[in-house]
Amino acid sequence: MAIPAAIVGLWHVSVTLTPRSTADAYSNGVPGTAVVVRGRVVYGNKRTWSVSGEEVVSGVQIYCEDVPTFDVTGTVTLPDGTTPKIHAVNRVSWPNDSSHLEIFA
């Protein structure tokens, strides 16, 4: 059993996730290989917490297939071509060891 069909049925768009692969000599992120996944993009304000523990307002939430190496240091490209700043990434695990991402940007 994979992610429930009711969840996957809500994923009608493609988003591009680009994990950070490494850092250069100046600690700037070097992008890894971009991966196109199915997902759902929801626009609207939602409170969440950043990696540093600060409460922030997310203007867009992305629910999508998991990319194991993806975290807040990566970039997400939405269907309209925008790349919002990522505040938090939650990995939601299912009992069958599958998972999906919740990205708050």
Summarize the structure.
The chain is mainly β and 105 residues long. Helices cover 4% and strands 51% of the residues.
Essential attributes:
mainly beta, 6-stranded antiparallel β-sheet, about 5% helix, single chain, 1 helix, about 100 residues
Give the topology.
Layout: H1 5-8, E1 13-18, E2 20-23, E3 29-31, E4 35-49, E5 55-65, E6 75-77, E7 88-93, E8 99-104
Antiparallel strand pairs: 1-4, 1-6, 2-3, 4-5, 5-8, 7-8
Structure annotation, total helices: 1
* Unreliable parts: none
Find the structural class using helix and strand composition: mainly beta
| Tertiary shape | globular
Radius of gyration: 14 Å
What's the story with the biggest beta sheet?
A: 6 strands, antiparallel
Instruction: Give the termini distance in whole angstroms.
Output: 30 Å
β-strand percent reads over 45%
Q: Please give the order of strands in the largest beta sheet.
A: 6-1-4-5-8-7
Fraction of residues in H or I helices: under 10%
Question: Count the strands?
Answer: 8
Averaged pLDDT: 90
H and E string:
HEEEEEEEE
How would you characterize this protein structure?
The model has no long low-confidence stretch (mean pLDDT 90). The strands form two sheets. The chain has a six-stranded antiparallel β-sheet, with no helix packed on it. Strands 2-3 form a two-stranded antiparallel ribbon. It has 105 residues and is mainly beta. Helices cover 4% and strands 51% of the residues. It is built from one helix and eight strands; from the N terminus they run H-E-E-E-E-E-E-E-E. The protein has one helix at 5-8; strands at residues 13-18, 20-23, 29-31, 35-49, 55-65, 75-77, 88-93, 99-104.
